[in-house]
Design brief:
alpha+beta
Length: 161
């Protein structure tokens, strides 16, 4: 398994990250589908997540607050566009509470066999300026690496229980 998420920033309007997990695809997918799991790993290092609404279905909304290690709160709204169990989750971020960050995200899950899974996160922004803003002001590239590392650790914990 790679030690960290590989990033692809070659497209000026997207952030793409790939990571492999030593866990079966159904378990990794499950970590995305239940709010009790999401709250354990979602966000970069030092962040916690509090969910106020979670409806995991096409058209469903996930409203949550990410609490930063500096005490700052970040309101978030995700609307799920497509869900294909164990294969794909597509959603768009933003559109509520005056959030300045709006983008679409597709997370694909690939069963590599032998209990291994590859995930590809692909976020697409309205323009290069928006993508560069989240990288510069919110550390989005490093945040993706930290978030997927937290997911890897949590999935390992899930496998032990």
């Amino acid at each position: 398994m790679p030690a960290k998420t590989s990033l692809d920033l070659g497209d000026p309007v997207s952030i793409k990250g790939t990571r492999e997990f030593d866990a079966p695809v159904d378990l990794v997918f499950t970590a995305f589908t239940d709010v009790k799991h999401l709250s354990q790993w979602w966000g970069p290092n030092g962040f916690t997540t509090t969910t106020s609404h979670f409806e995991f279905k096409p058209g469903g909304v996930w409203r949550f607050v990410m609490h930063g290690p500096d005490g700052r709160d970040y309101e978030n709204r995700i609307t799920f566009d497509e869900i294909v169990p164990n294969r794909r989750i597509a959603y768009h971020h933003g559109g509520g509470n005056g959030e300045p960050i709006k983008f679409s995200q597709t997370v694909t899950f690939e069963d590599l066999g032998q209990g291994r899974t590859r995930i590809v996160w692909h976020g697409v922004f309205p323009n290069a300026e928006a993508r560069d803003f989240v990288i510069r002001e919110h550390g989005a590239a490093e945040g993706l690496q930290e978030t997927t590392a937290r997911l890897a650790g949590y999935v390992t914990t899930m496998m032990r229980s």
